Please model this.
Amino acid sequence: MIGYWRRISDADGKHLAGLDHLRALAIILVFLCHYRAYERPGWVDEVGLFGWTGVDLFFVLSGYLIGNQLMRQLDAGAIRFGEFYLNRALRIFPAYFLVVFLYFAFPFIRERDGIAPLWQFLTFTQNFDLDFGNEGTFSHAWSLAIEEQFYLLLPLTLWSLAGSRIWRHGPWIFLGIMVFGLLIRGFLWLQVMQPFYDAAITENRFVAYNKWIYYPTYNRLDGLVVGVAIASITNYRPRWCAWQARHGNLLLIGGLLLVAVAYFIFRGDRLTFWPTVVGYPILSVAYGMLVFAALSPSCILYRVRWSASAVIAALSYGIYLCHKFLNHLMQQPLDVIGLEKAGNTRVLICAVVSVLGALLLNCLVEHPFLRWRARLNKRES
Model:
């Protein structure tokens, strides 16, 4: 048990502290965003309005971590597809499929009435054609579906490009994907959302936006691509890395300023045209600058270790999976004891319960499978 606690609290200092801080920030933002489904204090509403961007920070982190891993394998000779896919499966599937089972076996835990078909959860295609208005239960799994599609396709993409001259034009590929996102979001907005605004229709506007623009993979590649670009820089651009190593705090300040720009872009009606078209790439680049800064030894995020952020980061996947139904289950007991609905204490209790639920999930499910994965990797090496 001591060894287990040392692992999740990073007592040995094996993790990059900066990335732990950012991962903890991402899940806190997501939690506060979803807690807006209940009566809440004003500060939760204010922060939660921007909390949905925690997903975009997760995308950048995933793009970097997975891209860096695969590029190092390429440099060592070849991508080990079997090992990569097995490792991803043992990391993601056990806890995820357990939560899916709970949602379908025990409907009383559902935070909303409707839920997407089971086959979409099993195939990680829930983010396509997702009707949030009627299928709001476990709807946040849309982002995990995108992550899984990314895990499936990135190794194949890098492998196919590695032996071609196209690989030399990485910056242009990056820009091309970003421009593709701009164009397709703009086109879809004009086709789907313009009629809502022309006719001043507010009913189902948010549902339509989520279904056609916010959830589909092809509209949400910005963060993942920025993360992969950072991995490419750290592996193939030594001069850029040398500059980054000396100016981590400058990158951090620049990233925070750009996050502030993104905040004001999305501050009003984020469903309108310009936030939809240019807001996502600006947000992704902003979070990318934070991730790049966190990798710099000169950055305060890199140098300062904090056990709390290490623990939250280690449990972030479990918190992501279970916080919505735990928040839902906690409301009635807290009502019974007369706890103020919009009080800070209620938010704190729900947050602690989500952390404890994630800890239980990690201890009973994630950790055993990760130990098995480590044994398999050691045996194969």
